[in-house]
Specification:
It is built from 17 helices and 24 strands. The chain is α/β, with parallel strands linked by helices and 537 residues long. The protein folds into 3 domains: 179 residues, 3-Layer(aba) Sandwich (Rossmann fold), CATH 3.40.50.980; 170 residues, Rossmann fold (3-Layer(aba) Sandwich), CATH 3.40.50.12780; 93 residues, GMP Synthetase, Chain A, domain 3 (2-Layer Sandwich), CATH 3.30.300. A 9-stranded mixed beta sheet has the order 2-1-10-9-11-12-13-14-15, sandwiched between helices. It has a 4-stranded parallel beta sheet with strand order 4-3-5-6, with helices on both faces. A 4-stranded antiparallel beta sheet has the order 16-17-18-19, with no helix packed on it. Helix 11 links the parallel strand 11 and strand 12. Helix 3 packs across helix 4, helix 7 packs across helix 9 and helix 11 packs across helix 12. The longest helix has 17 residues. The N and C termini lie far apart (53 Å). The structure holds adenosine monophosphate and 2,3-dihydroxy-benzoic acid. It is an enzyme of class 6 (ligase). Keywords: Ligase. Its EC number is 6.3.2.-.
């Protein structure tokens, strides 16, 4: 037994949170089974194809576990999950937890080089993807069929999430009678439950190790501040495996209380509005651009949206102007959510006054969240003064997965996570005023400029590049790349061709620069460093 858990907590601090009762020994598998037992005939999950009760979902999970076990998935094995929003996604993750395996979450938008990196770094032995890939995912799956740099080739298991029986056929071995999984083999509460993704500030996304204990506490705390109940209906419109969608209070919150989960293909009004009306949706989570699209959608009044009680908006900063429109124009409660896959989640309370709701990013959801706002020398600043947000608590990781160098700069000696956000902390509320980390927030999708720069630099006609975020009315930020061509390049560089090149190198689709400008030189700061600030205007 090691002295440090997968999430970086010492045995001693784990014991502390256990004694406080915030870590209560629950696991994702127990959570699921409790609801199946309590509400077998209630509606559990709906997508464009299927509609399942909890008992039916449980049967689907058992079936999925059988197939996965037959393909070598067992306790402790790490498995990349890259599936579209669907009931099959739920079956997959709970089947993995039933087997004690560890999901490694990827978004459908992640590209081949991201997914190969996840497979190397986790390391993952299996990949579960869709058997209905678009062009982008076809590429991901083809690239994963080539051996990784360490010589391994992960086993691909493709699921047809658009079929009545997603587990019927696919490129996998079918089970025989003698390989039915025996009793479930879920892990312990302080085991690694999954690896979640961070937008990351360096080259490639970092992997975030969360345990059952720490994550499920965050789900319970979310439910308390969001008042989610058994007869509620949650619309999942953002990618299912995003931390916001999973846990704030998200899919797992719905499982915890036994609410119904409805999957949408996308957060666009044309997908979301009919589903709200048809399924009497009570709650949904959106990133700011999706909320703005909904507010500005001309045909909104055609749909009956009265069933919605609350919309959660987070992932990137919501403008006060848009926030103010929610109640009068949609008639919904707004809860701003400022969260991070590393842990800390803040909500504006449902009962807060309107000014707090529209102009802050909320309050830490747990009384055990510790907040420090410091200057660049780690000295605390007076309340109300902007500073760097550091945080520690029962559900904020104390280390990234297998990344000692990143850990050294991302955490303080006493275990506080350096969020990279610049905030004002006043009367218990946090307002996000900026960002210290080198990261672009494109409507909630986090992009590491360095990763995009590294890809552009491999182009034979590129001399140098600099990637920054530029303000955008809808997304908050877009990406702009300044590219200096090589002097001896044979043909002139074209922005469209460079975009295509980036796409082909396997970066996530949201990381392809929105704007590429070919320039002769970059703007420089007084001391001769490339000025990213001057570029961003
Ligand atoms: P990640 O670490 O990739 O999960 O991304 C979390 C980051 O997203 C936070 O550290 C913030 O920079 C940003 N973020 C999330 N929610 C909000 C919000 N409501 N307002 C402003 N920024 C946000
Ligand atoms: O952006 C995020 O990562 C995020 C936003 C809202 C998050 O992880 C969360 C809520 O839990």
């Amino acid at each position: 037994m090691t002295d440090v858990l997968a999430n970086g907590f010492s045995r001693q601090s784990a014991e502390h949170y256990r004694q406080l009762g915030v870590w209560n020994g629950d696991t994702h598998w127990k959570l699921f089974r409790r609801t199946v037992t309590a509400r077998p005939h209630a509606l559990a999950a709906i997508d464009g194809i299927r509609s399942l009760t909890w008992a039916e979902l449980d049967a689907g999970v058992a079936r999925a576990a059988t197939i996965l076990a037959h393909n070598g998935v067992r306790r402790g094995v790490k498995v990349i999950v890259q599936l579209p929003n669907s009931v099959a996604y739920l079956e997959t993750i709970f089947a993995l937890w039933r087997l004690g395996a560890v999901p490694v979450f990827a978004l459908p938008a992640h590209g081949a080089s991201d997914v190969r990196h996840f497979a190397m770094h986790a390391p993952a032995t299996h990949y579960i993807g869709t058997s209905n890939p678009n062009r982008h995912l076809t590429r991901v799956q083809a690239d994963l069929a080539r051996p990784l740099p360490d010589g391994r080739t992960p086993t691909s298991i493709l699921v047809n999430e658009r079929a009545d029986d997603p587990w019927a056929r696919g490129t996998r071995r079918s089970p025989t009678r003698d390989c039915l999984p025996a009793t479930p083999t879920p892990g312990a509460a302080d085991d690694l439950a999954f690896l979640q993704l961070s937008g990351g500030t360096t080259g490639v996304p970092k992997q975030i190790p969360r345990t059952h204990d720490d994550y499920l506490y965050s789900v319970r705390a979310s439910i308390d501040v969001c008042d989610l109940r058994a007869d509620d209906v949650l619309l999942v419109a953002l990618p299912a495996s995003h931390n916001f969608t999973m846990s704030s209070p998200g899919i797992l919150g719905a499982v915890q209380v036994g609410a119904t989960i409805v999957f949408a293909d996308s957060p666009m009004p044309t997908d979301v509005l009919p589903l709200i009306e048809r399924h009497r949706v009570t709650h949904l989570a959106l990133v700011p651009p999706a909320l703005i699209s909904l507010l500005n959608y001309p045909d909104r009044a055609v749909h009956d949206l009265h069933s919605v009680r609350t919309v959660w908006v987070g992932g990137a900063k919501l403008s006060e102007t848009a926030a103010r429109r929610v109640r009068p124009e949609l008639g919904w409660n707004l809860q701003q959510v400022f969260g991070m896959a590393e842990g800390l989640v803040n909500y504006t309370p449902l009962e807060a006054g309107i000014e707090e709701i529209v102009s802050t990013q909320g309050r830490p959801m747990s009384p055990y969240d510790e907040i420090l706002v410091v200057d660049d020398d780690d000295n605390e600043v007076p309340a109300g003064t902007p500073g760097n947000l550091l945080t520690r608590g029962p559900y904020t990781i104390r280390q990234y997965h297998r990344a000692p160098e990143v850990n050294a700069r991302s955490f303080t000696g006493d275990g506080f996570y350096r969020t990279g956000d610049i905030v004002v902390f006043r009367d218990g509320t946090l307002t996000v005023v900026g960002r210290a980390k080198d990261q672009i927030n494109r409507g909630g999708e986090k992009i590491a400029p360095e990763a995009v720069e590294n890809v552009l630099l491999t182009h034979p006609a590129v001399h140098d590049v600099s990637v920054v975020g530029v303000p955008d009315d809808i997304l908050g930020e877009k990406t702009r790349a300044l590219v200096i061509p090589r002097e001896n390049a044979t043909s002139p560089l074209k922005p469209a061709a460079l975009k295509k090149y980036v796409r082909e190198q396997g970066l996530a689709s949201f990381a392809v620069p929105d704007i590429i400008d070919i320039v002769e030189e970059f703007p420089f700061t007084g001391v001769g460093k490339v000025s990213k600030k001057d570029q961003a205007v």
